[in-house]
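Project standup — Tuesday

K.O.: blocked on the structure for the chain from last sprint. Re-posting the sequence here as requested.
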Amino acid sequence: MIAALVGLACLTAVSPTASAAGTGTGYWSARGAQLVDAKGDPVRMTGINWFGAETANFAFHGLWSRSYRDMVAQMAGLGYNTIRIPYSNQMLDAGSAPTSIDLAKNPDLAGLSGIQIIDKVIAEAGSRGMRVILDRHRPDGAGQSPLWYTAAYPESRWIDDWKTLAARYQGNPTVVGADLHNEPHSVSGGGGACWGCGDPAVDWRLAAERAGNAVLSVNPDWLIIVEGVDCVAGTGSPQCGWWGGNLSGARQFPVRLSKPDKLVYSAHEYATSVFAQPWFDDPAFPANLPALWDHWFGYLEKENIAPVLLGEFGTTLRDPRDGVWLQNLMRYLGSGPTGTDFTFWSWNPNSGDTGGILNDDWTTVNTVKQGYLSPYLIPPSGGGPSEPRPGCTAAYRVENTWNGGFTASLRLTNTSSAPVANWTAAWTAPPGVQVVGGWNATVVQQGTAVTAAAPSWAPSLAAGASVSIGFQATGPASPSPSAFTLGTASCATG
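H.V.: unblocked you, prediction finished:
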């Protein structure tokens, strides 16, 4: 981008019989402005961005709170059929070790590199019929770069890494494309990226051709996704827009690939709460928006030139105009398999500019945002076999209270089809609560994180079996704890 849990419902994956118009079969190609699958049937990305691997964590954010399997299942259950995964070239360096992962919730991620963790998420997404696009978001974990290269990560490294990834996922149709570089843009006072200026050192269109053709030489099945820039002269007003959002130069200077049917253009679009662009203060707002979007990117689909992916768009909804903008944008993108492809920014609640589909607890859903998107989502279809899904329910009850403390019980039920060996339960204590002892488990607290380890006489919890844990604590008995887990599974509560 530019510069409490009680009452959870169970989340289930969409049935494989859901609309095949979402993710289809095999690899994707462009037929005019329409994406089609290997059978020639129309498909459409209605997806979500899950960031973190591009940062200094070198791993998806939120893995400190939940398991990756849980989150991918929730995405699919909400109707998102594609995950856009940002990464940095630095993440691929040998010394870049992932951090901030709760290994009790994600035990199979222990010792893995950043790209190996991405492998896991890709496999999980594929098992649910979802698709993935990889987004080279930054050269390093520090921040955005106006050009596709820096002194530390030159163009040769950028292209070589793309070729390595293209080879890594060759033959895996879950991964359908490469978003070559996130948000190329100009810089104040001159410099940065241009479109069609002809200078190979700064002309993003020419660089996208070099990288795109190099990727296709390794993996001819991938879509090559090319974002716009921010400013393009000579194409009409306004001349400048969002970073990566201006594709007005593609009519005169199109991207030329060795396989033209693999080209997808991509734009970004944001609300006034992200930045107060002048068109939000136009007296004609919101009636001025469709013409603006036509100018930036919409003409490419309306004139059947190429598909467009709205790769990022998001909002805090704090300004009253934000909801109007989002409602009009979704209507502009259209519904059904022939609509414009999109991946919303973001899944993460910790995006400072926009927030996310998830609330700050990393589990419950921002129902207002989801409500704007839901009518336009096409759930994933198909998917291969997968491992049994972990699952549990949690029933919490305060047993006794007194001035300054209380006792409570927690009944956990293993709702999966497999036993949980050497189980550990966990939850988040409310502010001011401190556990001082427990029974039927070894209960300890560090900060607000509470864990309860299985007793030595009953280390395994069979499928369908329950365990009751008791504890004593100081502090208020209300509100209740949140974010209950059993092993790698988040627990539904009731």
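K.O.: great, moving the ticket to review. The CA atoms of residues 85 and 439 lie 43 Å apart. The first strand starts at residue 29 and ends at 31.
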